[in-house]
Amino acid sequence: MDRFIIGGGRRLKGKVRISGAKNAVLPIMAASIIARERSLLTNVPQLADVRTMMELFNHLGIGVRLKGNRLEIDPSGLDRYDAPYEIVKRMRASIYVLGGLIARLGKAVVSLPGGCAIGPRPIDLHLKGLSELGVEINLSRGYIHARARRMRGKEIFLEGPKGTSVGATINVMLAATRAKGKTVIYPAACEPEVIDTARFLKKMGVRITGEGTHRLVVEGGRPVSGARHRVIPDRIEAGTDAVAAAITKGDVVLEGCCPDHLTVVIEKLREIGVEVKAKNRTLRVKAEGRPGPTEIVVAPYPGFPTDMQAQFMALLSLSRGTSVIVETIFENRFMQAVELMRMGARISIEGN
Ligand code: UD1
């Protein structure tokens, strides 16, 4: 590729501060409603999805106040248990209030999320896990009606056709805080956002072990209280900025990130010739010349994240030689390829 549009622009230089993780703050917000007392979250990113979750909380009677990056949640006034389609259709992660409401009230009526741009994204594993815990689930007119009469902890097998599920692991973990006895989620998703949610629940008084492994154990039925928590940095934002630095042959310092959550992404960048230096909570990304080619196979954490696949496709379009990217988690996640092709990238897609 001699002629490429994004490669020819200004080199990115300077420092960027990485925000808190969207995919951690949303389930942590849902976790906060299992208590009656207030919780305080810091390092909260200012994003539309956070505001959508706040809107849903307002609807449920939960007090929320976002000041800068501090979010105060007061769930004492919770007086509804329904999540309407108008909100859930805008943000799939609203589905996390299902687990939160079951844990707090023993009942919930939550709209089915429907499809999204990257495929049908089913929630069968969420519902399977919840029913095994003793939650009665009925689907009617596009809504999930959930009612927990007697919830008992048990071993729940939660593997789907694509492997572990972040969302199902979190929803079942939240609901399991109400179930008497031990719930073992196997195989549990190991993503840092699952760990961060588990850590917040532990601060609330829930007994959890094994977070970050495939065997996550929740001992439910104990009293819980509000908690304070600092949300982990967003690994996808950091990875995206790192790729932007590489694409523009820039020299960028990413502050306030967690390099440990980016091991595979950093390894891939180094493999294709990008200089990456990690020091405590800082990454310095420097690139000169065109990247080399590589092969990427997307996998659940600690594998290569599906959420970084599109950015790497853009970067590898600039490379000398042929790269191969295999997406294993979401169908329809190569939508960016056609846009890159319009810009002159040479890409061929196999499979569906
Ligand atoms: C989360 C992230 C998303 C990321 C994805 C995979 C949030 C808010 N979103 O999405 O950014 O791309 O993890 O790392 O955290 N599946 C089923 N049945 C289910 C649930 C999932 O078959 O009940 C399938 C999905 O279609 C997909 C795979 O399992 O193929 C993994 O999905 P999952 O980990 O659940 O993704 P999300 O939690 O939706």
Task: Sketch the major β-sheet.
Answer: 4 strands, mixed
The H-and-E topology, N to C, reads as EHEHEEEHHEHEEEHEHEEEHEHEEEHEH
Structural category is: alpha/beta
Q: Could you estimate the helical fraction of the residues in percent?
A: 25-40%
Strand content: 15-25%
Topology, number of strands: 18
Q: What are the bound molecules?
A: uridine-diphosphate-N-acetylglucosamine
Contiguous low-pLDDT stretches (5 residues minimum) are 1-7
Structure description:
The protein is α/β, with parallel strands linked by helices and 352 residues long. The two termini are 26 Å apart. It contains eleven helices and 18 strands. The model is unreliable at 1-7 (pLDDT under 50). Helix 1 packs parallel to helix 7, helix 4 (96-105) packs parallel to helix 6 (166-176) and helix 6 (166-176) packs parallel to helix 7 (192-204). It has helices at residues 22-32, 48-60, 85-88, 96-105, 124-132, 166-176, 192-204, 235-247, 263-271, 309-316, 335-342; strands at residues 13-17, 39-42, 63-67, 70-74, 82-83, 107-111, 135-140, 143-148, 155-157, 181-186, 207-209, 216-220, 228-230, 251-255, 275-279, 282-286, 295-297, 324-326. The strands form five sheets. A four-stranded mixed beta sheet has the order 1-14-16-15, with helices on one face. It binds uridine-diphosphate-N-acetylglucosamine. Uridine-diphosphate-N-acetylglucosamine binds next to helix 1, helix 5 and helix 6.
